[in-house]
Amino acid sequence: MFYDFSKKPALFLAPMADVTNPAFRHVAHLCGADFTYTEMIHSDGFNHGDPYAKNRGFSIDGIPYGIQIVGNDSESIAKAAAGLEKFFAPAAKVIDINMGCPSPPITKTGCGAALMAQDFGSENHPANIVRRVCEVAELPVTAKIRIYKDDEKTIRLAKSLEDAGASAITIHGRTRGQMYSGNADWKIIAAVKKELSIPVILNGDIVDEKSLQTATELTNCDGYMIGRAAIGNPNIFRRLKSYLKTGAPEIISLPDEFETRAADLNHYFSGLKQYDLLPHVNVRAHAQWFTKGLPYSREMRLKINELHKEIKIRHLSDDELAAERESLIFEISNVFEEYAEKCRREYHEEM
């Protein structure tokens, strides 16, 4: 097994395109995430020599992690799985197949959640993809799916994945049509958990201590995967780990929260620089994500948006882009320090 699920409940960082690069995964792990996954790596791209995987799929300091593959063909996915596990050995511990991404650019090519529309028995049905990957991969194989409107159909799919050899499954509690709107249906995930003998990981709407407690009580899942709530806020794993240990939400002042977020961002920036990731990451957007929920967040986003606004990214080489973004992150760090000091000052004046 790729993870010791006896250590329940496990907290996982969801694979997210343009988010879970090696530096962000590293910070999330240091904040308390038990296991993390790469951004989606397209099987066809990897098989044809696209450098995307090399730039995004490695692990900092050899921390164990999972490789997530997206594709629309069982043979292409299997070939990529066999290559990726060797490419990223020994830190890579599991091959996860994306069968739940609802993004139209993904589904219109037959990938992600579009795989769940395949007929049972077809070559590219999720169960047959898992079975084919298990035949060629040495690492455990898992799948990330969504739910159907029909609960029994969801349970049937989950059982078929287990029968095909999946070591665990992750279920996002929304249908493909819901995208990320409405509420995740944890009850159907609880029903799937009762039917399977392999670990089940819940995904969708884990945003704080209360939601984690409710999800654990309702579903008794083996793991809980956090996606959007961790974007710009890896500190959520610290808070949840503290809650699991003490049973009480952590009380933190606004200045302390601000300083923690700024420190996590600077740590993230350091990883981007050290591991040559700057050319591949939109640091302006990522920095703006780190302002969410903070005092003066709108002011900060506006100020960050104005920094180096005149630079034409498409005209720069990778080396020039890295140098430009290194200068940009220095100024962004100054913005965070400026407003952190403002928060400290105004907070103590109110006290």
From TrEMBL:
Gene3D superfamilies from the UniProt entry: Aldolase class I (3.20.20.70)
Keywords of this entry: Flavoprotein, FMN, Oxidoreductase, tRNA processing
A molecular function (GO) term: tRNA dihydrouridine synthase activity
SUPFAM superfamilies: FMN-linked oxidoreductases (SSF51395)
Keyword Lipoprotein (UniProt): no
Xref: Pfam families: Dus
EC category: oxidoreductase
Domain DUS-like FMN-binding: 13-313
Alphabetized PROSITE patterns for the sequence: UPF0034 (PS01136)
Cofactor(s) listed in the protein's UniProt record: FMN
EC numbers for this chain: 1.3.1.-
Classification via PANTHER family: DUS-LIKE FMN-BINDING DOMAIN-CONTAINING PROTEIN, TRNA-DIHYDROURIDINE SYNTHASE
Stated name of the protein: tRNA-dihydrouridine synthase B
Organism: Methanimicrococcus stummii
